[in-house]
Design goal:
There is one protein chain. The chain is mainly α and 174 residues long. The protein is built from 7 helices and no strands. The protein has helices at residues 3-10, 18-29, 37-88, 93-110, 117-122, 124-138, 145-173. The radius of gyration is 27 Å and the shape is rod-shaped.
Length: 174
């Protein structure tokens, strides 16, 4: 059996890189049309190294893609919350400023080099800022049914943002 056949039989679910197949073919059909044990061993080690590196890169990309998607969703919810508060009226200005400063600090902490993000986001002053936004929304005085609906929606969005923040913290600790 050739090295390629051995790899295909042992790992049928893993796609083999074209370079590995070319290397195998070269080793199999190269000068003298034989493979020494040393060449076979080197080929197996090179193939396994390529597979491990491929899986490592794939795992890192999946983590990056997941974080990117979660940050995009969070940004959309922050914008939606800000718009809901804007529609409630000018009395929401203080809450909106607090919301913006909170998420500016979150983004700053996310992209700070060498920082422990979990410690940064779970710090009492950081979690208190988001809770302050939620409290500020609940304390708003509403006069119409439309404002009451907007306030309910804003409280829901703030709760979703808090949940997403804790989820990101828990995932980072894994």
């Amino acid at each position: 059996e050739t090295l390629l056949e051995l790899l295909c039989l042992q790992m049928p679910d893993i796609e083999i890189d074209m370079r590995v197949m070319c290397l195998t073919d070269l080793l199999h059909n190269g000068p003298g049309n034989h493979i020494t044990r040393g060449k076979l061993g080197i080929g197996v080690i090179a193939t396994m190294t390529a597979l491990v590196l491929g899986l490592l890169v794939s795992s890192a990309k999946n983590s990056f893609d997941r974080l990117n998607a979660e940050l995009t969703i969070t940004a959309a919810k922050v914008i939606e919350l800000d718009r809901a508060l804007a529609h409630l009226g000018p009395e929401t200005q203080a809450v909106r400023v607090q919301l913006r400063s909170n998420y500016a600090a979150v983004l700053e902490g996310l992209f700070a080099p060498g920082q422990n993000h979990a410690a940064h986001f779970s710090a009492p002053d950081k979690t208190g800022q988001l809770e302050g936004v939620q409290t500020g929304i609940r304390q708003l005085t509403v006069r119409t049914d439309m404002q009451r609906d907007l306030q309910t929606r804003a409280v829901g969005l703030a709760g979703e943002l808090a949940s997403m923040r804790w989820l990101l913290l828990l995932q980072e600790r894994e």
